[in-house]
Amino acid sequence: MSLLVPSRCNPVLSSMILMCLVALLCYLVFPPRLTAQISTTGKIAGTVTDGSGAAVPNAPVSVKSTALLAPRSTHTQADGSYLFDLLPPGTYEMTITAPGFSTFNQTGIVLTAGFTATIPSKLQVGEVTQVVKVEGEPVVDLENNQTSTTFDQNLLQEIPSGRDPWSTVAQMPGSTLSTFDVAGNNSYQQSTMQVHGSTPAEQIYSYNGLDLNWPGANGGYTQFYTNHDSFDEFQVVADNAPASVPIGGVYMNMVTKSGSNQLHGQAVFYYLTAGLQAGVKFPIFNGKPVTSGSPFDMTKDMTASLGGPLIRDKWWL
Question: Are 129 and 103 in contact (CB under 8 A)?
Answer without folding.
Answer: yes
